[in-house]
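Protocol step 4 of 6: structure prediction from sequence.
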Amino acid sequence: MRYELLVGLRYTRAKRRNHFISFISLTSMAGIALGVAALIVVLSVMNGFQTELRTRILGVASHVQISGNGNRLGDWQGVAKMALQHPRVQAAAPFVNAQGMLAAGAAVRGAVVRGVLPADEERVAEIGRHMRGGRLEALRGGEWNIVLGAELARALGVLRGDQVTLIAPQGQVTPAGVIPRLRQFTVTGLFEVGMFEYDSGLALIHLEDAQRLYQMDGAVSGVRLKLDDLFAARRVARELMTQLGPDAFASDWTRSHANFFRAVEIEKRVMFLILTLIVAVAAFNIVSTLVMLVTDKQADIAILRTLGASPASVMQIFMVQGALIGIIGTLIGVAGGVLLGLNVDVVVPAVENTLGFKFLSKDVYYISDLPSEVVAGDVATIGLVALALSFLATLYPSWRASRVNPAEALRYE
């Protein structure tokens, strides 16, 4: 073992006459551990929220969507067949997308009306898993049934079996003038995916009923695709665009919800920078610890210099001490952060039961539990940043130690 490392470790373990230096060392170590643990837990919870929201959005939206110009796609069967030949595409489903007004008694609400084929829709979306009443298969062509989002049904004041009137914006020409197209539907199901945008503004009807009501003449708005890897959506959309004609175009979920996911990613980065300041403050404590230690050990430094130790060797001795504080604090923080991040679903309910209130009330938030996803890359980055800050904090005090003049230090000894 090099003597610089040996002496540095001995200094770290030695009992000091000045207990205040030991206290600051422990405080620095605890600060680094708390900062690292807080960073890991916060980023894990944000990763969990991001994954949970992406899952809920893609439970209703599609990975890739092929749409026709003017909201009309004629040969959708040919387009679906072509798309299914791509190795990444697992399923395809046609849809009609339109606007409408739903009325029940005195209540009126605007909604996005989506015409679907239930069997095909189950393969590209997960609405069937979020049904709170009824089944998606209850939508049959010609029976004029409708499935509503739970919030939309609550706003209209309807339940399963009730009647609602759908008012289409396309007018019907009569001798008395243009009047709106009306059709009465029976509510056969309710769904709740946990996203207010869909739960309060989406209504599903059968594809054939949508084509008749909105005068599509056998055409559809587009085809929705499900991929084996949602993160390949952008590349698959570009590849499909080269095979589509001029009357159709492809878009993916990263474009349709780009602002939302970009905002989440920016928020994650900002939180990382803010919480890194906690580690930086703890690292600055290492500076004060080593400066006081250099002052306390000036006689020892002078003796080492007279025995032949070079200034670089003295600098390495004190760098070992500071680095050891950072390494131990980082390891404790990583272990504690990973352990807490993996058990957030257990720790948070225990704290809520102890304090007697919920952090995320179901009456306010759709995600009432704190999801957590510990990502190895984030843990490694946090650990490396903490070690780097700890190492940088040792440079100035160690340089000060290497500049100690042996004659001046031993003058009054």
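Step 5 (inspection) to follow. Residues 62-256 form one domain.
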